């Protein structure tokens, strides 16, 4: 009976889980079709069919499995569309400095918020939190003006610098640091260690899981960035991959699936590899410090 | 004598912490001020001026103009409507799935992964799928046709809001499930055992143990869901562009379009209003939570 219950529950959850995976799986299988097949299946998207004029009513034909298994789309994207690789590289060149910079800057600031006493500490932290929950558009104009004043317009720095200083890393690493007992720090002080020494000899080794979690979450968030480059980067050859895909969907639908798979692959692989860090990071951000 | 030395030590320590804190904070604080804090304050001031360059103070003129604008009211209504529908829905669904995932299951970890995976899939790479599913000639309509239901023009009718709710739920439900699972696993097992001995039913246990001890998690989940509901703009923008169907024209579209048409006054006023609304709802949530905590103690 208990076994039956377990089986039935698994089945129910399994069906819902399959629905969750459906768009991802279909994107993958469709990336193995020929361009012709894609075109044939989906050419009716966005078309109005005028039945009054005698046109035959039609539908798209969503297919799970390709008629012909082929890597043609991938070859097309990788070899014949140099702009794809260029923009993939642009994304890498934006996300990497953001992650490296934020881990460094945020871990220092998080130490001050978690382990040092100073006037206005908690108020300042609330201000950090406030900016974290606001939509990007809220500070669109002043941001634009500042980026322009700094002469960063149309450069990747316009994306990277705000990315480095976003409050998220400070918030998350502070949560991790609050779990480190103060007695460790007191003991180190007794031994005559200064704060910098305490920071990199005690704190940094202890929050390594937190840093790993932050890296995963930052990667996911910034790889996905759309609004900022849309505003700050005009030249299409400087833009990240997210914008390439939003354009390719309209035109070359035949290779969009392969491009999508290549775009999501780093995220999905990183997630499957570091799922426990990812989950720990989210759970810890939910625990009140 | 000893007292004096003691005090001197404390003062020294205080001074030390202060200076150290400044050094540790400085890199973050400088960047944070330039790219977040100052823009925030600037936006607030712009909303009361008639121009961003040498503007003069005009009181609430921008707000009055904003209120008179039909497209702003449309956008504000839609934003409230979307958050009002999608947040309760996603909280209930994610709680349900978390409770189910917390049972004894086969391949439990795999199932959990399936729910969390959409969280890491970039929006732009899945937009094609949404278009194929919800187009007038799309797959959902094919399914409906085969069940002899009249097809719906999903993206060009009020149903577009429904599509947005689906897209939002699909993407964010994993986040809430992770939080709820952590909450569920932190409830001590012996509470349930005691209830079993006292002969409590399954429903009784759900209401009086699970939900009560899950309430702090619930607050955070609701808060995060609201915040994430503002991020649905990415999806809307990629699926439907600058000017989507009236029903899914939300505040971010409005602000974006005001930006493109250089109507900075309306933009900053709208932004300030939005910030105000978010702050009020967060404050209300937090004060309810505090009251709940006192009540629990």
What's a concise summary of this model?
The complex is a heterodimer of chains A (289) and B (297). Chain A is mostly helical and 289 residues long. Chain A contains 15 helices and no strands.
Model description:
The complex is a heterodimer of chains A (289) and B (297). By secondary structure, chain A is mainly alpha-helical. Chain A is built from 15 helices and no strands. Chain A has helices spanning 2-30, 35-42, 72-80, 82-115, 121-133, 140-149, 157-164, 168-178, 182-190, 195-206, 208-223, 227-232, 241-248, 253-273, 275-285. The radius of gyration of chain A is 24 Å and the shape is globular. Chain B has twelve helices and no strands. Chain B has 297 residues and is an all-alpha fold. The chains are: A mainly alpha (289), B mainly alpha (297). Chains A and B meet through α1, α4, α5, α6 and α7 of A and α1, α3, α4, α5 and α6 of B.
Proportion in helices of chain B = over 70%
From the alpha-carbon coordinates, what is the Rg of chain A to the nearest angstrom? 24 Å
Mean pLDDT of chain B: 88
The helix count of chain B comes to 12
Please report the distance between the alpha carbons of the first and last residues of chain B.
Answer: 45 Å
Oligomeric form: heterodimer
Helix percent band of chain A: over 70%
Number of strands of chain A: 0
Order of helices and strands of chain A: HHHHHHHHHHHHHHH
* Content-based structural category of chain B: mainly alpha
Tell me the strand percentage band of chain A.
under 5%
Quick one: biggest sheet of chain B? none
Q: What is the H-and-E element order of chain B?
A: HHHHHHHHHHHH
Weakly predicted, low-confidence segments of chain B: none
Distance between the termini of chain A: 43 Å
Report the uncertain regions of chain A: none
Treating each run of at least 4 consecutive H or I residues as one helix, how many helices of chain A? 15
């Amino acid at each position: 009976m208990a076994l039956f219950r377990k089986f039935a529950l698994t089945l129910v959850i399994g069906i819902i889980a399959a629905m969750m995976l459906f768009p991802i799986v279909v994107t993958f299988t469709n990336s193995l079709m020929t361009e012709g097949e894609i075109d044939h299946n989906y050419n009716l998207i966005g078309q109005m069919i005028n039945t009054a004029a005698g046109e035959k009513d039609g539908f798209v034909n969503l297919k799970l499995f390709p008629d012909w298994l082929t890597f043609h789309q991938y070859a097309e994207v990788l070899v014949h569309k140099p702009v794809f690789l260029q923009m993939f590289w642009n994304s890498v060149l934006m996300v990497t400095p953001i992650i490296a910079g934020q881990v460094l800057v945020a871990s220092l600031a998080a130490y001050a918020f978690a382990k040092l006493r100073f006037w206005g500490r908690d108020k300042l932290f609330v201000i950090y939190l406030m900016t974290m929950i606001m939509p990007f558009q809220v500070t669109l104009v002043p941001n634009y003006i500042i980026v322009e004043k700094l002469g960063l317009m149309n450069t990747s720095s316009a994306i990277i610098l705000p990315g480095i200083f976003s409050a998220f890393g400070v918030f998350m690493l502070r949560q991790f640091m609050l779990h480190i007992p103060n007695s460790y720090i007191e003991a180190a002080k007794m031994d005559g260690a200064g704060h910098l020494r305490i920071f990199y000899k005690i704190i940094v080794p202890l929050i390594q899981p937190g840093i790993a979690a932050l890296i995963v979450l930052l990667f996911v968030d910034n790889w996905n960035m759309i609004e900022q480059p849309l505003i700050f980067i005009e030249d299409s050859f400087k833009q990240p991959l997210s914008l390439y895909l939003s354009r390719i969907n309209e035109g070359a639908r035949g290779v969009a699936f392969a491009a999508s798979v290549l775009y999501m692959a780093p995220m999905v692989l990183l997630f499957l590899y570091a799922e426990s860090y990812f989950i720990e990071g989210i759970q810890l951000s939910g625990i009140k410090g | 004598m000893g007292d004096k030395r003691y005090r001197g030590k404390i003062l020294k320590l205080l001074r030390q912490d202060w200076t150290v804190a400044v050094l540790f904070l400085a890199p973050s604080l400088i960047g944070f001020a330039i790219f977040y804090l100052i823009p925030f304050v600037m936006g607030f001031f712009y909303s009361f001026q008639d121009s961003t360059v040498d503007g003069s103070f005009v009181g609430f003129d921008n707000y009055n103009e904003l209120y008179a604008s039909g497209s702003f009211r449309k956008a504000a209504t839609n934003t409230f409507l979307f958050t009002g529908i999608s947040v309760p829905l996603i909280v209930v669904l994610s709680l349900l799935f978390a409770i189910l995932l917390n049972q004894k299951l086969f391949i439990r970890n795999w199932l959990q992964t399936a729910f969390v995976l959409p969280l890491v899939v970039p929006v732009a790479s899945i937009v094609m799928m949404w278009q194929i599913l919800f187009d007038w000639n799309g797959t959902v309509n094919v399914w409906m046709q085969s069940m002899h239901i009249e097809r719906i023009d999903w993206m060009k009718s009020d149903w577009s809001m429904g599509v947005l709710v689906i897209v939002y739920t699909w993407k964010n439900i994993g986040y809430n499930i992770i939080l709820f699972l952590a909450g569920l696993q932190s409830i001590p097992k012996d509470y349930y055992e005691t209830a079993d001995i006292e002969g409590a039913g399954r429903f009784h246990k759900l209401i009086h143990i699970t939900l009560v001890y899950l309430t702090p998690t619930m607050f955070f989940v609701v808060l995060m869901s609201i915040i994430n509901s503002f991020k649905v703009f990415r999806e809307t923008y990629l699926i439907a562009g600058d000017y989507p169907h009236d029903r899914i024209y939300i505040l971010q579209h409005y602000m974006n379009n005001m930006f493109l048409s250089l109507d900075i006054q309306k933009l900053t006023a709208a932004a300030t209003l939005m910030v105000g609304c978010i702050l009020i709802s967060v404050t209300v949530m937090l004060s309810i939570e505090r009251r709940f905590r006192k009540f629990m103690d």
